[in-house]
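Researcher: Structure prediction, please.
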Amino acid sequence: MEKIKYTLIILLGLSTCVNAQDLFVSSGSYVFVQDEILFVNDDIRLDEADSNIFLREDAQLIQSSNVKNSDLGTLSVYQNQTSSGGIATGIYEYNYWSSPVGVSEQGTTKENKNFQILNLFKPVDPSTNSNISSNVYSVTNSYNSTTTEIAKYWLWQMQSSGGYNGWDQVSNIGEVNPSNGFTMKGIPSSTANPNTIDFRGRPNTGDLTIDCNFTGTDSDPNSGLTTQVETLTGNPYPSTMDLKKFLIDPVNVAGLDGGVYFWEQKNVGSHYLADYEGGYAVYTPGNPLDMTDDGNYLPAVFTNYDLSGGQSGLTGDSSFDYTSQNSRRYAAIGQGFVVRSEGTGNGGGIIKNDMRLYVKDIGSSSTDVFAKVAQENNNDNSNEIIAMSHNGIDYQNIINNPSIIPEIRIHTKLNDSYYRENLIAFRQTTNLSYNKFTDGRHPLVLATDTYFIADGYQLGIKSIEYDIDVKLPFGFNADKESNTYSVTINSTKNISESIEVFVHDKFEDTYTDIRGGAFEITLPQGEYDNRFEVVFRDNSQILTDEIIDLENEVLKSFLVYQNNTNNQLVIKNPQSHIIKSFIMYDVTGKVIFNKQNLGNELEYSFPTNNLSAGTYITKVTTDQNFEITKKVIVNN
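Model: Predicted structure follows.
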């Protein structure tokens, strides 16, 4: 092993990468990195308790090989506690975490170590980038954390869980596997005491396996999933993680369902489960063969929960829309998330170093996301985002020049109380079948809900290749005796103004424009998976236009006239249309002729020698109910 002894490295505002084959930090030495990337090809030895690496102001560490780290020293990296929409997480709200470090232990054994609460420190002054001083958080048995104590009751983890009873409490000081995530409620925050967490410990690196294996039996019939299990995992590294590359890894393609699920919740000021208002948002990675496709993100709908963890009602709120931030493709340091199993007995997933990247945020833009909101980046080149990785992917180009995926976001207001969002994404080579990665399953289908349908899956995200004749099945779930729905388009992205969108009610055969209006309906209890569809053409209008064209053609083909020389009314029918009736009136309305079912002869004649001279009205009606009306003048 090549030993590199660092006494002090300070990087200030340089767009550089510090490289090392191996990194050895001796006793009494430290590496300080500010707002840059530290790249180590193999392993790191932090020799003694006072051997440290400090990552400050978005600095990150990336390692390449699968060789793990060792020894007693620590890496220190900050992360803030924020919830949906960038609001500081309070003492009543959860964050889903994944620790970038584990417990440091003496010895040269190269391995990732489990996380403990003792890895959490409070910075003395997090507002100062040069600060390296922190104090370990104490733990409290109280339900409320303080500025110096963490309420340990709220640390939970979940592996291969079928429902609410699959959550396991992280007892005492805790032991959380490096590939597992954990929940933790917030610490009181103020300007003087921001709730910044300083993770300190041995940095995680290399391959980590995820236990997410469905055995075929629903372990919790009262809540959760019935044919899948889920695991709380996350980004285990002190660097940004590419969730697209994570999901399309061959191991995860086989073992996971193709989505990443983020817990979002509202600040409600209560620890009682029945008061919680939250739900899961979903990220899907898009076309796995196109790394410039960032995928799609669908916000959560907030629900209440009963004491068994089941759904008990809807709150009317939904989570923040992160679509402007690369659809949450890039997970920040410490970000926890949920994955779900695919099939039975497929074993779970894997996290690897080649999913790591460095993203440097310039100006006010933020690309990697830990439940926070970034300001929109402008097109000024000085605000170009700097990104790099060792995995051969050109993130600099991808992040600054992503593929444009046109989107239509449909909002359905349900029972006048809450909205469900469903997303149509237009991607080439996708169709009405279920397409893993480009389609997204609803995290939770509500008692009263709407969803797209493909191959039996209830979807919140559906990708299709645009065609004016596409008919996208749109399901309605109705829980009450009477359920109201109002469906409209909430927003579009890169969709032409000329594109029309309709809801087609196949039972009533009606087409309702939802781009310029709303489709409104009241339904009794039931599941309506075959009645409605989203379409891009009003076929009833097309049919009307076709009928008008046909009628005009038929009308022009008939010739009705009075032959005064022969004292005959003549009807010529050169195209042999079927004549259902012929009626002739005088100007007073008196019926002169009333002939029915005349067939389809080429010519008809009726005697007029007994009629008084004057004007008469004739009406020929075909079997298609087209009417040919004409005035004739009789001169006898």
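Model: The chain has four helices and 50 strands.
Researcher: Thanks, that helps.
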